[in-house]
Amino acid sequence: MQKLLPHHQHQRVLHFLTKKHIFIAIYLLLLLALLHLQFHQQKKSINSPHQVVRSVPKEEDDNTNTRRGAQCDYSNGRWIRSKAEPIYNGTSCGTIKKGQNCMANGRPDTGYLHWRWRPAACELHEFNPSLFLSLLENKHLAFIGDSLARNQVESLMCLVSTVSSPVLVYRDGDENKFRRWSFPSHNASVSVFWSPLLIKHLEKEPSLGKNHNKLYMDSVDERWASELDQMDIVVFSAGHWFLLPAIYHDAGGEVLGCHYCPEFNHTEIGFFDIYRKTLRTVLNEVRIRQERTITRRRRSDKLVVLTTFSPAHFEGEWNNAGACSKLEPFREGEKKMGYMDMEMRRIGVEELKDAAEKKKRKMGENGSVKYEALEVSDLAWMRPDGHPGAYMNPFPYAQGFKERMPNDCVHWCLPGPIDTWNEILLDMIKRWKSD
Ligand SMILES: *[C@@H]1O[C@H](CO)[C@@H](O)[C@H](O)[C@H]1NC(C)=O
Ligand SMILES: *[C@@H]1O[C@H](CO)[C@@H](O)[C@H](O)[C@H]1NC(C)=O
Ligand SMILES: *[C@@H]1O[C@H](CO)[C@@H](O)[C@H](O)[C@H]1NC(C)=O
Ligand SMILES: *[C@@H]1O[C@H](CO)[C@@H](O)[C@H](O)[C@H]1NC(C)=O
Question: Where are the transmembrane segments (predicted)?
Answer without folding.
Answer: 21-39
